[in-house]
Amino acid sequence: MTDEHHPAPPRARTARSLARETLTREIVAAARARLRTDGPAGLSLRAVARDVGMVSSAVYRYVPSRDALLTLLLVETYDELGDAVEQAEARAPRDDLTGRWLAAARGLRQWCTTHPGEFALLYGTPVPGYAAPPDTVEPATRVVRVLVGIAADAQRAGLHPRPAPDGVPPAGPVVAPARAYTLERGLMPDDTPDETVVRTLLAWSALFGAISFELFGHLEGSVTDPEAWYDQAAARLAADAGLA
């Protein structure tokens, strides 16, 4: 008999369920290794099966399709990236908004540059024939939610983003979906100006763009130190967002 003070103990996992978890983890780990050599579009269940010492038909008992495997990889790696950025930002003092922003940005780059295969899956060329399902959305937005949180704290502190240049049309209609997303989840105050949303979205895309340029070789011949360049970009984006 159980009640709210004496809840039932968790059900013990069976040997079969533990074995299934173990094999699924091995398959996902092998798939991540394949990302580094074959790229997301080249990911093959047959090749992954060879890597874990299984016949390809047996892999389907654990992962029903290549698309299902890609979804597992997306959720796992988005969450790993989210963890890295959240933990980096959490180590900075709460009242140091610029420090929090730079810590988050550096945590982002550190994870991406040490996981180039996973970065290519998350932010590279879309895999032909694959459409990410809705359950990847929340993990995919963890990084931008960190940036939004810092921008929201700046808003509460009375700091304001850099105004739009003269002659630029109002941004409200363009960023309406992003504004709705933040307000529905209570991520920003209700009176947050559109320009704060614009600058945060701009920073999000610019940070990932800088990392993409570095990892895909587009900075060759343009900058002497990609890490220093990234810090320069992150600091200017912080100023644009009104943090400094």
Any chance you could write out the topology, listing elements then pairs?
Blueprint: H1 15-38, H2 45-51, H3 56-59, H4 66-90, H5 97-114, H6 116-123, H7 137-140, H8 142-156, H9 176-184, H10 194-215, H11 226-240
Short structural summary:
The protein is mostly helical and about 240 residues long. It has 11 helices and no strands.
Give an overview of the whole structure.
With about 240 residues, this protein is mainly alpha-helical. Helices cover about 60% and strands about 0% of the residues. It has 11 helices and no strands. The longest helix is centred in the first third of the chain and has 25 residues. The protein is globular. The termini are far apart. The relative contact order is 0.11.
Question: Which features does this protein show?
Answer:
62% helix; 244 residues; single chain; mainly alpha; globular
Rg to the nearest angstrom? 21 Å
How many angstroms separate the termini? 59 Å
* pLDDT averaged residue by residue: 91
- Number of helical stretches of at least 4 residues: 11
What is the general shape? globular
Strand content: under 5%
